[in-house]
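Sequence, please.
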């Protein structure tokens, strides 16, 4: 039995907003009342690929200083499942164990923290430089008072990291859960991440609603690489800062209304709380990440 993989909401530049489709027999055909949909319709043959596209409007906030929020107008869902190997929205995996209510996989992925560093800019920021020095204080010639002096500043660059690890996916009448453990295998940050997620989906005719919660632990090596201020980057604007390992959490809500068997109206929202040590970094402006999306989704 294949168990759908559900990923953290809104964690990549193209937010992972896709809700795994309920089986075709759960969605009534166009114009067919939900109450009269045949209950004994034969199950469709299982496909080894999945392709979907959602068009609409959404946005994900960026907690990084001097950065832009991430807009989402198009969201793609691409997956292929072989006998053992699978590709699921840029995750490459190999199935180790497949049982009726749980699956264990080896998975390789790209770290999602790097997505925030792709939406920065080099705008000028206002900085009250009161200590003199090479730049000297900015003085209003009319009043003689110190004023804010614009200083050109850009956040440091961060590289992508390839991480590999294990995941266990479970499902049942109680809902869906996932346990994951990943470690950097590319030598980018050398750290690891542990996470646990739980979600449940209610279906009433054409309408479904799926709340989810998750918690993750990122160690100091991973967190400090992306969100710390390293010694060679430190300036009077950006003091050196070491990030410690810590826990973060998130909660999401996804809703769908099926217009036809393959077309639905989808609305998603997600809240993510950053680990405390990350939120205190000079590189971080906001302690949380908010995301939303609303649009029409097609499953082919």
């Amino acid at each position: 039995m294949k168990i759908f993989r559900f990923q953290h909401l809104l964690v990549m530049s193209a937010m992972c907003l896709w809700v795994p489709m309920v089986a075709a027999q759960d969605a009534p055909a166009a114009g067919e009342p939900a109450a009269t949909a045949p209950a004994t319709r034969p199950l469709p043959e299982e496909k080894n690929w999945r392709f979907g596209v959602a068009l609409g409007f959404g946005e994900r906030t960026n907690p990084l200083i001097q950065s832009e929020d991430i807009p989402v107008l198009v969201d793609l869902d691409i997956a292929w499942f072989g006998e053992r190997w699978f590709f699921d929205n840029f995750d490459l995996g190999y199935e180790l164990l497949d049982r009726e209510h749980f699956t264990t996989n080896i998975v390789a992925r790209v770290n999602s923290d790097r997505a925030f560093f792709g939406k920065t800019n080099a705008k000028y920021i206002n900085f009250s430089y009161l200590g003199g020095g090479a730049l000297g204080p900015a003085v209003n010639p009319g009043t003689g008072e110190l004023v804010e002096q614009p200083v050109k500043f850009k956040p440091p660059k961060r590289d992508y990291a390839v991480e590999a690890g294990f995941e266990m996916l479970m499902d049942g009448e109680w809902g869906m859960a996932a346990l994951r453990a990943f470690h950097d295998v590319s030598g980018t940050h050398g750290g690891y991440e542990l996470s646990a997620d739980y979600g449940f989906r209610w279906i009433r005719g054409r309408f479904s609603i799926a709340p989810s919660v998750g918690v993750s632990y990122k160690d100091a090596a991973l967190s400090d690489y992306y969100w710390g201020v390293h010694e060679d980057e430190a300036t009077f604007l950006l003091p050196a800062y070491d990030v410690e390992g810590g826990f973060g959490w998130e909660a999401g809500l996804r809703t769908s209304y099926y217009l036809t068997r393959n077309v639905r109206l989808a609305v998603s929202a997600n809240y993510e709380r950053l680990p405390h040590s990350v939120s205190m970094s000079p590189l971080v402006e906001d302690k949380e990440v908010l995301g939303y999306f609303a649009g029409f989704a097609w499953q082919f």
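Residues 238 and 282 are 6 Å apart (CA to CA).
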